[in-house]
Hints:
Blueprint: H1 20-43, H2 46-69, H3 73-96
Helix pairs in contact: 1-2, 2-3
Amino acid sequence: MPFQQRKTWRGAQPMRHPYTRLIRLEIISIICALIIGTLALIKGFITLIFLCVYLISLSLIVDALIHIHTNQAPLAAKQVLRAILLFIFTTYFIFKL
């Protein structure tokens, strides 16, 4: 018997996780931070290190958004606080150098 395709309504798409975009953004920011951080360590560029830290804080913010949407407010608050502190200290170090 040949392979039969599932019959769906016109325009129907398979169901995806509701937070797929946020999860992808978090993974992309972590991967970019890893690549840029490795490059910064090899080349020795301090600006790339700061960019890497900003990408990590973006990843923390996106993780907090995922926690907010899944009704885990205490975890989201901790992640937002971590991201804000990381952002503030990194910005302070940029202006101090």
